[in-house]
DNA sequence: ATGTAATCGAGACGGTACGTCACGTCTTGTT
DNA sequence: AACAAGACGTGACGTACCGTCTCGATTACAT
């Protein structure tokens, strides 16, 4: 219904910026639609007009600032995985950065539709990049041919997420390396 | 401050039962403290007197009904793991059962303290049971000696949780079996 | 803080009407802010936005329906006073009408600010009307020149209020007449 | 039902003292049954067992400390009235003392039964003392024989109460004297 | 002197209302 | 038409007291 051609880009940016600021500065509980609107100097209706839920605002704010995922391909699979896994583990370990993950996860749990969007728009590139790298390795014979690459990707990111949510152990480079070791052991020919 | 010796066991049970009923019957958003109190025929203060947050009520309700974890030890590690992983995958795949996981996860994300309690009281027994089974297998030489058993446990449960949260694929017995296959491949001597 | 220009006149009227209805129908103890809001079909916040206490709602409701005070001036001071005093005594004697006086008095006793408003907005017109009538009579030589007219007004209304509050005797026309007799005796030249 | 012979005089005194202390120290709104019990170091039930409402506690606390009313009879009616009216006006003018009047008045307005008790037990002695003094004066020919002494008493105390409740003017000795003047003018033969 | 029954302190309990917060919708000018 | 502003009905929040109730632990009376 809303006419996107008339949309104020200025308000849109103010809202997304306000959302990111509030995510970084305050408790997630304080990050309400009203707070975003107030912080952005925007009417609440302007938010409701363009997004259906708070989670979508957060998602768009995050996708906007996401750096395009480029996975290195040095030829050395283990080194390449180590790099990406170390980076991911570091991100989950950083309280500042993981605040956004917290927020997004809560929203995903309340809205299946959003969960799909987060998966496809935010995470898929990352997951696919790893998968693609694994596919290359498989073609090069570094990985057994019957390995389920989608599952292998989950073997990498699932444990990190699990450990992060449960505070089930330290999120250190050593942990990242151990994880890579075990996953590679699972797929080596 | 409250005097636990004078606590009404009847009210406590009514509250925990009401919480479970609401979790099973309704949307998580409708599962408010007021709704629990009303359903239990109890004053709100009686809830606030004994629990600090809704998540603690849910946790206690769930721990109360948790069946003690017994992991089979048939001598066949793969068969044993298959059984427990299939059961876990089935649980996450069942919308009814996973409603409680949703609720608890949301609460954990809002309260680190609760996250610790959930980990230690609810999940630890399950995780440790698997770990213990792996330890037995390692002593029997079915697993390489340098495997990090804690990490292996995460390799099993992390992907399930990851797939469930992201709706990243079907949660079927076949998936469970594939997961066990890959994990075992990682740890076989 | 609230923007009075955007105020809903419809809600305002519904609230004041509900307040009057509840005063007439129910016990004063049941006349809560929540009950007013429910009866008016209005959010509690809409009451709190525009009034600070229940007493202010009642005051505004009563001033809204107050009939303008017109004191007769037949030339016969005694007859005129008799009329107004009889009416006042009848009002205090009527359980229905005195319910509002009860309510308002309780509120006045809990809030000095409100007491002043009730005095100035609700009672002052009545008191001043009597005082003015007395002033006319004084100019006509029917009242001694050194009479303190403010005090004379209190001599009239004070005893009525006193008797009403203490149930210290009947509130009848005969009482009204006796009161007028004595007060006039006090001020005749 | 309760057996008064077993009643703890110590608790009774503690409750009445606590009530008076709270009346003097705090806002009337903070003077709850729970606050009295806590301050007195007494169980709530001990209050409910012996009094039906908060107002009765206050009443008993006040009657307990009331000084017996003795009205002077110097032979000079005007001087005698001036004394008692000045004292009354001073009491109403003192914020500390009038706090108890406030409390009691609120309770009276919520409970007719209590109103009667306050009238008969607390105020009657004072009112009757004045009335008796007036009766003596009437026998001595200082007051016209057809004066309604009950009404005259109301002419004295009603205006004070009225002025106090409405903050309708200063409560000073000059006011007291003016009041006596006018009342005496009303009853002189 | 010794049960035994009521009072006592303490405070948990089911309720009701409080006053606040944020929701998502709506209305009112402004741009 | 979108916008800032914010009032609106709704409903949950967490708190304060209400008046009732159950708990041992003192009492003080009747056996």
What keywords describe this structure?
homotetramer, 189 residues, mainly alpha, Arc Repressor Mutant, subunit A, Tetracycline Repressor, domain 2, 2 domains, 9 helices, 0% strand, DNA-binding
Assign the CATH superfamily of the largest domain in chain A.
Tetracycline Repressor, domain 2
Please identify, by name, the CATH architecture of the largest domain in chain A: Orthogonal Bundle
Number of helices of chain A: 9
- Helix residue percentage of chain A: over 70%
Order of helices and strands of chain A: HHHHHHHHH
Rg of chain A is 19 Å
CATH class type of the largest domain in chain A: Mainly Alpha
Form type of chain A? elongated
Beta-strand share of residues of chain A: under 5%
Arithmetic mean of pLDDT of chain A:
95
Number of strands of chain A: 0
Organism (chains A, B, C, D): Paractinoplanes ovalisporus
Protein name (chains A, B, C, D): TetR/AcrR family transcriptional regulator
DNA-binding region (chains A, B, C, D): 32-51
Keywords (chains A, B, C, D): DNA-binding, Transcription, Transcription regulation
Structure explained in plain terms:
- Chains A, B, C, D: Residues 32-51 bind DNA.
- Chains A, B, C, D: It comes from Paractinoplanes ovalisporus.
- Chains A, B, C, D: Keywords: DNA-binding, Transcription, Transcription regulation.
- Four copies of one chain form a homotetramer.
- Chain A is mostly helical and 189 residues long.
- The model of chain A has no long low-confidence stretch (mean pLDDT 95).
- Chain A has two domains: 4-50, Orthogonal Bundle (Arc Repressor Mutant, subunit A); 70-187, Tetracycline Repressor, domain 2.
- The first copy, chain A, has nine helices and no strands.
- The interface between A and B is large, with 41 and 41 residues.
- The structure holds a DNA duplex (31 and 31 nucleotides).
